[in-house]
Amino acid sequence: MNAEPLNASAPATARIIDGKAVAAEVTDSIAAMVAARGVKPGLAVVLVGDDAASQVYVGAKGRKAAELGFHSVQHTLPAETSERDLLALVAALNADPAIHGILVQLPLPAHIDTTKVLETIDPAKDVDGFHPINVGRLAIGERERALVSCTPAGSLLLIKRALDRPLAGLDALVIGRSNIVGKPMAQLLLQESCTVTIAHSRSRDLPAIARRADILVAAVGRPEMVRGDWVKEGAIVIDVGMNRIAAPERGEGKTRLVGDVAYGEAAARAGAITPVPGGVGPMTIAMLMANTLTAACRVAGLPDPQF
Ligand SMILES: Nc1nc2c(c(=O)[nH]1)N[C@@H](CN(C=O)c1ccc(C(=O)N[C@@H](CCC(=O)O)C(=O)O)cc1)CN2
Questions:
Q1: How far is CA 85 from CA 139, 189, 195, in A?
Q2: How does it assemble (predicted)?
Q3: What whole-number distance in Å separates Cα of residue 127 and Cα of residue 150?
Q4: What residue's CA is closest to ligand 1, atom 25?
Q5: Over the stretch 233-252, which tens digit does the pLDDT of each residue have?
Q6: For the chain, which terminus, N or C, has the lower number of CB atoms within 10 Å?
Q7: 204-232 pLDDT, tens digit each
Q8: ipTM beyond cut 0.85
Q9: How is the chain split into domains, by residue range?
Q10: How does pLDDT run across 252-267, given as a tens digit for each residue?
Q11: Active site residue 61
């Protein structure tokens, strides 16, 4: 039977999908599961160099892990660290039974081959879900054996919370084809039996494609590219973009964060929409914690936690 498209009585202004609140629900449930299951998930976060934003993210991940009762370690290496030394650290973490999850913060300095580093992480400890084994398992429909990339996994959870019906049969559009967000997002939606389109910078008549989408995920890295008139009435809009743009109205040299969607315009037509900040971003760290708990449960022979 064909699913009805979303639309019918679309509200004049979208519901705001509160990523912070959903992330807090996820991490609360993780803390409860850690206590109930008697596991001590171990997360190692590796930072190479002194990129200011990366320092903030790595600090937030380590603190959240400790707060949830995980064994939490951070390795901070200087920017000049050789690829060989970084690979040796990853190998040591692969061999450490107290560590269930390894995360190497990106971007890495230019002299280090990122692919080589990510492929050295034991797939069972790859809590970022970037290893080709995990990507492949997701692609062949073996999500239950994979660790799934955190941002798409978190986005799917937000979509499910925003919808009051199953996703099956809905038209989903993912704008952006990155390995980290666009492609795994499309795979997840496909497994929910959506009809999935992946669009990118060379797609023809993107506004027309977008107007057909019941679920629109923007992960293209272009500030406010998706305009209000691209959005179907009542659609769920998930904005993965995080773009810092000049904000002279706030004073000289000031900036502000915007997504890939022109929020005000899109909110006037969407059924529900994620803001930036406060939408998808907080889910990334929550799903990292979820993946680390999952990895620890698998080692202990326990069932995967469900979120
Ligand atoms: N190994 C990884 N590296 C990177 C990842 C990743 O998932 N794994 N993602 C990004 C950075 N990132 C986490 O690492 C991340 C970025 C942003 C947020 C977030 O919550 N953003 C806030 C806004 C923050 C602000 O005001 O600047 C939001 O959207 O509300 C969380 C995690 C690159 N590297």
A1: 32, 38, 45
A2: Homodimer.
A3: 8
A4: 277
A5: 999 999 999 999 999 999 99
A6: N
A7: 999 999 999 999 999 999 999 999 999 99
A8: yes
A9: 37-130+284-299, 150-280
A10: 999 999 999 999 999 9
A11: yes
